[in-house]
Amino acid sequence: MTVTVFILTTKGPVRIQRISEEELGVQSVICLDGRAQALPISSRYDAFVRNPTGIIERATGHGAYRMDVDRMIDDGDSWQLGVYLAHLSENNTDQDIYVFATGEVDRELRVRPVSHISEKLDQAYDLMRALQREVKRVRVFVPHDNDLELDDCQGIEVDQVSHVDQMFDLLGISPSKSHVPKGAEVQHNPDKLISRRILFWAFPLLLVVAWFLWTPISWMGLANNGKLLELEETMDEGSASFIGGFQQRLFFLLQDLRAHEPKMPELVGKMITAANPQACNAKSGAQVMSWGCRDLDHGRNL
């Protein structure tokens, strides 16, 4: 079964046709009958939806919607009570309910008075009577106002409410699971809660890991700068703790990873050899030229 919401206006009741979630970051809008035509009050609707000004995102965990209505809504805030009901009502009733509502809803979910209530009821009377003749369940909600004198709207019961919870109670329906009851704090959807819990635990863990790594890295800086005495004293102080032992192992591991493998020297040139030891004492250039000459490479034993 469904809950159909009509907003009471001085120009006649406006039916809320549908509400759809939109991508976050876009502005919430009220459109006319499924068309690409945003109504002038769309900016006020966006403020009513979005935190920190509004209450719909606080209740549903989502901050961007498109709402389609069948007639124009020009200005004012008396549409808020009906819009809140449309956002928060679940279709869990035993019969179809047709709700007519007018009223402003504040941050504490109180229903504030609005003007021209009698005129709005007069404009909706024909439709309400037609629905009743079809044996439809019709409920009417207006703000509680001690100065407001209402009859039974010619056979149609009108309820004055001072808080949105009264409206749900009188309808006998449960608000959606993300509904924020009176005095409750902001509720978030499960995905946001999980993300925040992960961040809550991950941040201190990252701090511990950073502290654990910083000590071996600082030791490496001392070693690179040749401050071996200071390095030895610092490592001796750190070794007194259980974690200090692991930090020392990490330091030596990092030092081993940075160490370069030794390379054999590469020798390039010629080696001149004398025929016998006596030839080394020769003074003449001719004798030197008679010495043997062979290539020198790093793989030959000298």
Tags for this model:
302 residues; alpha/beta; Ribosomal Protein S5, domain 2; 3 domains; seven-stranded mixed beta sheet; two-stranded antiparallel ribbon; 9 helices; 11 strands
What does this structure look like?
The protein has nine helices and eleven strands. It is of the alpha/beta class. It folds into three domains: 3-171, 2-Layer Sandwich (Ribosomal Protein S5, domain 2); 199-258, no CATH class; 264-302, no CATH class. Strand 1 (3-7) and strand 2 form a beta hairpin. The chain starts with a strand and ends in a 6-residue tail after the last strand.
Radius of gyration: 42 Å
Instruction: Tell me roughly what share of residues is in helical segments.
Output: 25-40%
Q: Strand count, sense and closure of the main sheet? A: 7 strands, mixed
Overall pLDDT score:
78
- Beta-strand percent range: 15-25%
Question: What's the number of structural domains?
Answer: 3
CATH architecture tag of the largest domain: 2-Layer Sandwich
* Count, helices: 9
Widest β-sheet, arrangement of strands: 3-4-2-1-5-8-9
Q: SS-based structural class?
A: alpha/beta
- Residue runs with pLDDT of under 50 for 5 or more positions: 178-190, 298-302
The topology string of helices and strands comes to EEEHHEHEEEHEEHHHHEHE
Rough shape? elongated
Query: Count the strands?
Result: 11
The first-to-last residue Cα distance is 102 Å
